[in-house]
Amino acid sequence: MNLTLDDLSVRRGGAALLRELSLRVPDGQVVGLVGPNGSGKSTALRCVYRALRPNAGTVWLDDEELPRMSARHAAQHVAAMTQDADLDLDFTVTEMLALGRTPHLRGGRTPGRAERELCERVMDQVGIRELAHRGVVTLSGGERQRVLLARALVQEPRVLILDEPTNHLDLRHQTELLSLLRRQEVSVLVVLHDLNLAAAACDRLGVLAAGRLVAAGTPEDVLSAELVREVFGVRASVVPHPLNGCPQLLFDLDHPATR
Ligand SMILES: Nc1ncnc2c1ncn2[C@@H]1O[C@H](COP(=O)(O)OP(=O)(O)OP(=O)(O)O)[C@@H](O)[C@H]1O
């Protein structure tokens, strides 16, 4: 399913948070949204998972306008793993995952055997089976993060929206999560801060600065030393990854900034 952000503008309290953002996530591709703090990345995602209504522009799922869909219909197609998620609930991990099936259950039906098997498969994929009976409030930051990903996958979405999904994860879990994303047959829009992980994991990148899309394309097209200097104010060298050739950034901590 193709996801299209179409000319989105968001203004709040007299400030422009997003300015005429257009970005396409083609069916089955992983598109990364990167940019400095406060550049509008989460704002863009919020417009997609309907936590925020843009002042102008819209979002398309193929040729259907997402804001016009019912909440249930939208949730059958789009799942989000976000910074806003509230896990301070007295639920076990298994119960939390079952909630992910809600959009697909008709008339308040409770999850049956097929749903339970799906949840178990996803727990194995994400490596949280041993947490199944733990209360979600007792989990570490990284464990919670993986439970949220599992809940999104249990939803069996066609489009997955992820806001900094790796921020609490250790190195192994970061790489596992991103390689898992690449194996999913869904369209993915993901905000990442780590440009090297973004270059490795994403088919395409969009770069936001002050609410505007300033570059978009393949990681090779986008990640230049000039762009990193201009957008992030950081001096970096770009080298090809020795195994797969994707661009990777090296930083000089003695001379981090250009100004
Ligand atoms: N309701 C609001 N009213 C006013 N300003 C807001 C509102 N919501 C967000 N902002 C501001 O909009 C800007 C963009 O916020 P956003 O969360 O989209 O940035 P971001 O790129 O995701 O940042 P980060 O990398 O720090 O997570 C920030 O300066 C933020 O303070």
Automatic annotation (TrEMBL):
Alphabetized UniProt keyword annotations: ATP-binding, Nucleotide-binding, Transport
InterPro entries tied to this protein: AAA+_ATPase (IPR003593), ABC_transporter-like_ATP-bd (IPR003439), ABC_transporter-like_CS (IPR017871), P-loop_NTPase (IPR027417)
MF annotations from Gene Ontology: ATP binding; ATP hydrolysis activity
Superkingdom as given in the UniProt entry: Bacteria
PROSITE patterns: ABC_TRANSPORTER_1, ABC_TRANSPORTER_2
Residues covered by the ABC transporter domain: 3-235
Name assigned to this protein: ABC transporter ATP-binding protein
Organism: Streptomyces oceani
